[in-house]
Amino acid sequence: MNFKAFFSNIFILINISLLLLSGCNNDVKKAENPNSSPEIESISYLALGDSYTIGTGINPEQSWPYQLRDSLQTLDIPLQKTDIIAVNGWTTADLQNGINEAKPDSAYDLVSLLIGVNNQYQGMDIDFYRKEFRELLEQAITFANSDADRIFVISIPNYGVTPFAESRNPDEILQEIETYNDIAEKIAAEYNIPIVNITSISELAAKDSTLLASDELHPSAKMYAMWVEKMLPTVTQIIQP
Questions:
Q1: Strands 110-113, 151-154: parallel, antiparallel or unpaired by DSSP?
Q2: Dihedral angle over CA of 59, 61, 62, 63, nearest 10
């Protein structure tokens, strides 16, 4: 009897058995967690906007884009970079000019747009907003590899409830902001882009001063945290379709 060949065959059979067992274990793990998904690679995010996007009146690191970044990271969704193109007081036309100067690339995984309050505040023709918001939304799409599924819009807050606006006809401010938000929602719907409505959250500042920054106009970090909580389901759906 060839003992060398005999033991060689046994060794081969043992290895085959171990491989089969390993495969069975993997199948069991998949069966136990059928909804498991692969790890998400680092993503890049671009926020387009105005004072509400840069967090005027508070530490910029407490603005909602950075709070969104931090919240996603706690969900094991790492952001490779968070870029912001926004300046206090910008209208839609100003944002367009700022984008042209910044020249962002076209490979972002996530892009947001929040703009229009300064068009309203300055009493500009509403048709300018209608035209330029559409153009900005189309630009946002190009920054996301021409993928509209990577975009989300945020509604304009109602600053009419703040002490800053007490002598500026709060009812009229609300009506005009509602008109702006309706325009944004309808245009976004044409591209199947979701809009996160944070306007009702902004109105909580009427009875809670802690939701405002020291300028008594812009949101505090506390309010921005509430915005982020509202937008997280939309954002995670974009990232994890």
A1: parallel
A2: 100
